[in-house]
Design goal:
heterodimer, A: 251 residues, alpha/beta, 6-stranded mixed sheet, 3-stranded antiparallel sheet, 8 helices, 25% strand, B: 258 residues, mainly alpha, MetI-like fold, 10 helices, globular, binds adenosine-5'-diphosphate, binds magnesium ion
Chain lengths: 251, 258
């Protein structure tokens, strides 16, 4: 494992108890990888292959059954508080607090870091504006469309100032137009701030468009492909990668 | 915006049941002697007199204080039990049946136990008010805690908040609506129990005054004292509603109701 790794997994296994009790269900089956600072990594795999479970382990919301997970050298589950301010998540659904306005939602991350109201507000305002929500700061989530809510949740993640961004199918709940705009915004926002991002997707095109690297998972989660994408690949190379991924996903 | 006609119709709807009750009462008053059915005017005159006579009104205040003290105690203890139950299955398995058992005991039995166990009148009343509201509060707060949305909780947790931050940003706003509803319900119950509790030798309060009126066979007086409690409950509910409307402005107001 390289010392510079932002996120590293070493032979990670995750088992869930079956509802009936007795036997267990293996969702993650020996995953090893390491992600360097500044990379944008796309995580691809069929539904139910354990992508969200991998995320929850990176975020420390759940611990591995075996193996080790490290984020900036720390155990995100065991040393939960040590990583305060380092990780922000864009969840699959927006998960906005319905009792807070858009701007108060977007400022949540800095609030949890104990930052003052002025700083929170400025950061939240900045990111809401970047994401095209100027004028909607005072709106409550119920008054926003699905796409706007997802943008607030992205603003919340960016405004938290965390170096590591985890995005769980951030564009899948949006209409194609909105998704396309946000994808463009997303990669430039991540890159210009030098952050590390891991995003889950089930779209090969999205992975090719946004990622520096694509990790493809089997079900239960095992690494099937781990491809680094060169900048300015030619069409033929892209198509080759696309076919390789399709072949794995079709298995 | 509602049309003026609509507002008038609403007001008429609101007043109708009271108007019907008042008319029925007045008809009874014409046909029976006043010690059975005193005319409404007499009842309201007595009620107003109580409100403006300091020596009488202190009794109302004493009863209100007893209601609020009992409810506050029950909320603190019941809420505490609910937090324990929410955190541990073992605590829930232990406290659940205990609270169910307490809830099954009639208020009048608590009055008897209170007289046997405690000497002071105020202690007896506080005990009765506490023990009759506690189980309901505990179950209501537990229900509210269990209804905290797991996905939102996890989202806040992912920012690694302190316990206080989690409570203020997530738990409190999420349980508040149900807590207010619990107060509403328990306030109504408590103001019915309090008069029974005050029969245990209280030398003041609405219950004590009711007993006096009964001994004098003064129906107008009995009604006037009863109305004081009804007024209090209405006032308190109105305050809670005002609080709710302010606190829950974030909620989507459906244009059609259920
Ligand atoms: N908390 C849990 N308890 C039991 N099983 C779970 C839990 N979370 C996920 N699983 C199971 O693990 C597998 C992987 O789930 P998930 O990581 O959500 O998949 P993905 O995000 O790739 O669609 C699924 O079969 C799911 O049913
Ligand atoms: Mg998922």
């Amino acid at each position: 494992m390289s010392a510079a790794a932002e996120i590293s997994f070493d032979n990670v296994v995750k088992d869930f108890p079956r509802p009936g009790g007795g036997e267990i269900f293996r969702a993650v089956d020996g995953v090893t990888f390491s992600i360097a600072r500044g990379d944008i990594v796309a995580l691809l795999g069929k539904t139910g292959c354990g992508k969200s479970t991998l995320f929850n382990m990176i975020a420390g919301l759940t611990g591995p059954s075996a193996g080790t997970v490290r984020v900036r050298g720390r155990d995100p589950f065991g040393e939960f508080d040590a990583l305060r301010g380092e990780i922000a998540i864009v969840f699959q659904n927006d998960r906005l607090l319905p009792w807070r306005s858009a701007i108060a939602n977007a400022g949540l991350g800095l609030e949890m870091l104990g930052r003052g109201a002025a700083e929170r507000k400025a950061a939240a305002q900045f990111w809401l504006t970047r994401l095209g929500l100027a004028g909607h700061e005072a709106d409550y989530p119920h008054a926003l469309s699905g796409g706007m809510r997802q943008r607030v949740s992205m603003a919340r993640a960016f405004a938290a100032g965390a170096g590591i961004l985890l995005c769980d199918e951030p564009f899948s709940a949006l209409d194609e137009m909105t998704a396309q705009t946000l994808r463009g915004e997303f990669s430039s926002l991540v890159r210009e701030n030098g952050r590390t991002a891991v995003f889950i997707t089930h779209s090969i095109s999205e992975a090719l468009e946004l990622g520096d690297r694509i990790i493809v998972l089997r079900r239960p989660a095992r690494i099937a492909l781990d491809i680094r994408l060169e900048r300015g690949m030619d069409r033929a190379r892209r198509d080759e990668i696309r076919e390789n991924i399709q072949a794995v996903l079709a298995e | 915006m509602k049309a003026p006609g609509e507002t008038a119709r609403r007001a008429a709807e609101l007043a109708a049941p009271f108007a019907v009750m008042a008319i029925a009462w007045e008809i009874a008053a014409w046909n029976f002697p006043p010690f059975l059915f005193p005319p409404l005017a007499a009842v309201f005159r007595r009620a107003a007199q109580i409100l403006v006579t300091p020596d009488d009104f202190v009794h109302v205040l004493a009863t209100v204080a007893r209601i609020l003290a009992g409810l506050a105690g029950a909320f603190i203890l019941g809420g505490g039990a609910a937090v324990l139950m929410g955190r541990s299955r073992a605590a829930e398995r232990f406290f659940g049946p205990v609270l169910n058992f307490l809830q099954g005991v009639p208020a009048l039995s608590w009055v008897v136990f209170a007289i046997i166990w405690f000497k002071g009148t105020e202690q007896r009343i506080f005990f009765i008010m506490l023990v009759t509201s506690l189980p309901a509060f505990a179950f209501q707060v537990l229900g509210a805690l269990k209804a905290v949305p797991k996905d939102l909780f996890e989202m806040v947790l992912s920012f690694r908040p302190t316990k206080t931050q989690m409570f203020r940003a997530m738990i409190l706003p999420s349980v508040l609506p149900e807590i207010l509803t619990a107060w509403r319900v328990n306030l109504g119950n408590a103001s019915r129990v309090v008069v029974v509790a005050e029969l245990v030798g209280a030398t003041g309060g609405v219950g004590y005054e009711l007993l006096q009126q009964q001994q004098m066979f003064d129906m107008a007086g009995a009604l006037a004292w009863t109305l004081q409690l009804v007024f209090f409950v209405l006032l308190a509910q109105w305050l809670l509603t005002a609080l709710e409307t302010r606190a829950f402005a974030w909620r989507a107001a459906p244009e059609r109701s259920l």
